[in-house]
Amino acid sequence: MFDALTDRLSSVFDRLSGRGVLGEKDVAEVMREIRVALLEADVALPVVRDFIAKATEAATGEAVIRSVRPADQVVKITYDGLVEMLGGEGEPEGLNIALNPPTVIMMAGLQGSGKTTTAGKLALKLSKDRKKVLLASLDTRRPAAMEQLATLATLAGVESLPIVVGQAAPDIARRALQSAKLQGYDVVILDTAGRTTLDEAMMSEAAEIARIAKPSETLLVADALTGQDAVRTAKAFHERLPLTGLVLTRADGDGRGGAALSMRAVTGLPIKFLGVSEKIDGLEVFDAARVAGRILGQGDIVALVEKATEELDVAKAEAMAKRLAKGQFDLDMMAEQLAQMKRMGGMEGLMGMLPGVQKIKKQIAEANINDKMVDRQGAIISSMTKLERKKPDILAASRKRRIAAGAGVDVAEVNRLLKQHRQMADAFKMMSKGGGKGFAQMAQMLGGMGGPGGGNDRLKNLGGGKMPMPSEKEIEEMAAKLQAGDGGFKLPGLGGGGLPGFNPFKK
Predict the structure, then answer these.
(1) CB–CB of 223/114 below 8 Å?
(2) In whole angstroms, what is the distance from residue 154 CA to residue 375 CA?
(3) H, E, C per residue of 195-261
(4) Please, what's the b/e burial string for 19-55 (b: 16 or more CB within 10 A of its CB; e: otherwise)?
(5) Among 143, 308, 470, 471, which residue is least crowded by beta carbons within 10 Å?
(6) DSSP assignment of 18-57, as one string?
(7) C-alpha–C-alpha distance, residues 98 and 289, integer Å
(8) Which position has the higher pLDDT, 465 or 267?
(9) pLDDT tens-place string over residues 92-128
(10) Half-sphere exposure (CA, 13 Å, Cβ side) for 313?
(11) How much is the average pLDDT of 51-64?
(12) What fold does the segment set 301-467 form as a domain?
């Protein structure tokens, strides 16, 4: 999401960073380019005007013009403006869970916006928070809509309201509420019917259901790919329903991000969730500060840590840690790491959360580092016998040809994987023997590995030299800054810096 806007803003700020002093003419030029970038991202014109007016006023202040690093100050002003546009600082606005259960959550939106899928995703998220959830489909018009929600309920591990053929939507709502009360459910999610376009019949039915159910939350589900149409849909629904928040679906496919940047400012409603994949767990809590950081190429380390925590198998992790401590790292362990990466959103998803990756996007593309590469590596390991995975040294040319044929790749790709594994295994051995210096030694080694592709020459010399890795002293300084919550935190080797006063590790 926001790829086009991130690329454009990164280009603007890269040119700006070469200037020691900024005059009002320089600021005006930068703001003009930011304005064009926002409009190209399909942000609503009134929102862009307001943003540029506030940013220009802040950027032409004496503190910025006389600043030692005025370019950084302009980036910070842009960041603050984006945060305000997206909903402001502070904790994300969570769901309003009623003190006296059941809490009723009503899903509204146009047909095809992803409403039913989002209901299933939300049920899974709530069940992980130890809530007993009931899903109820009130969509009596779309063929198989009720069956679809029942299937999603099974995937999410929650219950769905039994289907009664011929029952009207308001009656289904009453039955869902009664069942939830009698069976002790904490949350009941009502999935209402939609239309391909806004019409009076749909609005009247939704308004009647809201009157009957008295929901604590009425969430409008909108497709991010529809851009300003999603904003207009939100305004129309909000005029007839007491909406409490928004969910933007297909956010991972929206390269512009104009709907997300316009929604809060135009409707006054908070964006509560982003739908980021078609998987049942593809729902992210919307955090304005973290999204603004992503737009400016700072990644989202907090989301990365949260994702890792959710997907981590503690028992497997502890077993692997013990083996790594002894310097053991076979191909089975490498396969487990690849599987873990896929569970966390794949290579592309993880890279989108890392600071500075936008700056080396071209090199990553040229090196062909993507989810397909990870799949191929997994296929190569799967084509090996148990003995070969344990003892890759026995892989002679004939075995490599057999493995390559089984995985559908060239022998050269098998050799690249084996080289990557050997470098990683050597690094872990070095760590196990090096004591306190182990990490720094591994870092130096990884600096020449060329990233996830392992031994790929196109990634060995990013920016004219090896990707800089932190020294032991730098590692200690980074740790101290993190503990102190220092906003000047920077990640060496990934773009060379961060936002002034912005710490991606601090919520």
Answers:
(1) yes
(2) 28
(3) CCCCCHHHHHHHHHHHHHHCCCEEEEEEEHHHCHHHHHHHHHHHHHCCCCEEEEECHHHCCCCHHHH
(4) eeebeeebbeebbebbbebbeebbbbeebbeebbeeb
(5) 143
(6) T-SS--HHHHHHHHHHHHHHHHHTT--HHHHHHHHHHHHH
(7) 27
(8) 267
(9) 677 888 888 999 999 998 888 899 999 999 999 999 9
(10) 10
(11) 80
(12) 434 Repressor (Amino-terminal Domain) (1.10.260)
The mean pLDDT value for 46-54 works out to 90
Instruction: Give the closest residue to 359 by CA, choosing from 467, 449, 255.
Output: 467
Query: Are the C-beta atoms of residues 86 and 79 closer than 8 Å to each other?
Result: no
Tokens of 329: 């790292």
Say which CATH class 103-287 falls into: alpha beta
3-state helix, strand, coil in the chain (%, to 5): 60, 5, 35
Residue 275, SS3 per DSSP: strand
Q: How far apart are CA 389 and CA 397, in angstroms?
A: 16
Q: Which two tokens stand for residue 172?
A: 């289904």
> Is 255 a residue whose pLDDT tops 70?
no
Q: What is the pLDDT of residues 417-428, one digit of tens each?
A: 999 888 888 877
Specify the length of the chain in residues: 507
- The single-letter code of the amino acid at 389 is R
Mean pLDDT computed over every residue of the chain: 76
Cis check for the bond before 468: say yes or no (omega within 30 of 0).
no
d(CA 275, CA 285): 9
Distance of CA 455 to the CA centre of its chain: 28
Residues 6+ apart with CB under 8 A from 335: 378, 381, 382, 389
User: The domain 3-86: what is its CATH number?
Assistant: 1.20.120.140
What DSSP letter does each residue of 419-469 carry, written as one string? HHHHHHHHHHHHHHHHGGGHHHHHHHHHHTTTGGGSS-HHHHTGGGSPPP-
- The residue assigned the tokens 């593809």 is 282
Amino acid letter, residue 4: A
Q: How far apart are CA 306 and CA 5, in angstroms?
A: 25
Strand partners, 223: 249
Ramachandran class of 286: left when φ > 0, alpha when ψ lies in -120 to 50, beta otherwise: beta
Q: What is the pLDDT of residues 67-95, one digit of tens each?
A: 556 677 778 888 888 888 888 776 667 78
CB atoms near residue 124 (< 10 Å): 20
Burial of 216 (0-12, 13-18, 19+ CB in 10 A): middle
Kindly report, residue by residue over 125-141, the tens digit of the pLDDT: 999 999 999 999 999 98
Tokens encoding 434: 């090096």
Fold match flag (3-86 vs 103-287): no
Cβ-Cβ contacts under 8 Å for 204 (sequence gap 6 or more): none
Q: Which of 62, 52, 36, 125 is nearest to 84 (CA)?
A: 52
Q: What is the C-alpha separation between 236 and 98, in angstroms, rounded?
A: 27
